[in-house]
Design brief:
about 20% strand; about 300 residues; 4-stranded antiparallel β-sheet
């Protein structure tokens, strides 16, 4: 079987220089928690990594959004499915890879520090984060993007410290999952059926959802949900989903330097040309034209 470490369509990764890591892990702020590697692999078919105990120098967070894969620590294998995350401990032989038939889409972070073990404790088995009224998955993924973008902008002390401050929040949203969910504003969790469907779409913006999947989550038939949706929004559920995806694409075009093919993979479009056609039809201009347009 083919096995590759990287080189996936739409992938993004940042590997911090060793000199930067040495500086931050020896100062008062950074020594408690710091990032060494961070990335996003969409549809990572044939993804595979293996490390010995001596090579396992950091904790490894794998957050699977879609598809599935597996991890192995000291010979113990575990399957990781969509909406699950796991933190592999440092100092132990490990391996992990994508399911060849249903390749995973993952966010991943390598990290260490005095507090790293505290955040990783008890999370060495797949933990499920199911989309729901209080799941706040979209907010968590925005946190990841903010960490990534901040590091992408350079390794100044301000950037490093800010990214690590956000990383505490990101890890806290996983370590203290119930508290993170319960801290949602009360008005955010009081939704009607259509609002709940929209929330589900936003929490699964990386996926190619079907109408039946949305309706099944709500507990209505597809036809009943479509009628309610049309009455309230003027759009069918799937047309509304396209608008949400394009809205997310606009956010990345406005605030990041991601390439169009990377953005389309992040919102569930595997074909950049099809994505560009849908974007142009919706926005009246191509993604590149939108990015170059003066706004504000």
């Amino acid at each position: 079987m083919v096995k590759i470490k990287s080189g996936f369509k739409g992938e993004r990764a940042i590997i911090l220089p060793e000199s930067i890591i040495n500086d931050i892990r020896t100062n008062v702020f950074g020594k408690n928690l710091y990032i060494t590697d961070i990335g996003f692999y969409p549809k990572a078919k044939f993804h595979f990594r293996k490390r010995s105990r001596e090579e396992s120098l950091q904790y490894i967070l794998i957050y699977c959004l879609e598809g599935s894969g597996w991890t192995e620590t000291e010979g113990i294998s575990q399957k990781v499915n969509d909406h699950q995350f796991i933190i592999l401990p440092k100092g132990k032989a490990n391996a992990y890879g994508s399911d060849p038939e249903n390749p995973w889409t993952i966010y991943w972070i390598h990290f260490d520090g005095v507090m790293a073990g505290f955040f990783a404790e008890g999370l060495d088995k797949p933990i499920r984060i199911s989309p729901g009224t209080d799941s706040r998955i979209e907010i968590r993924l925005r946190l990841f993007e903010e960490i990534f973008t901040t590091l992408r902008n350079g390794y100044s002390k301000d950037n490093l410290y800010y990214s690590l401050t956000e990383f505490y929040h990101f890890l806290g949203s996983l370590k203290f999952l119930s508290s993170y969910r319960e801290s949602a504003d009360e008005k955010d969790i009081q939704r009607d059926v259509v609002d709940e469907a929209i929330h589900f779409m936003r929490e699964n913006i990386t996926k190619r959802l079907t109408l039946n999947e949305i309706a099944q989550y709500i507990g209505f038939s597809a036809s009943h949900l479509s009628a309610l949706f049309q009455k309230k929004t003027g759009f069918s559920p799937l047309n509304y989903l396209i608008h949400l995806k394009i809205q997310e694409a606009c956010h990345h075009l406005d605030f990041t330097d991601l390439k169009v093919n990377q953005i389309c993979m992040m919102i569930g479009f595997e074909d950049p040309f099809y994505f560009s056609r849908i974007f142009t039809k919706t926005m009246g201009m191509s993604p590149s034209q939108y990015r170059s347009k003066k706004k504000g």
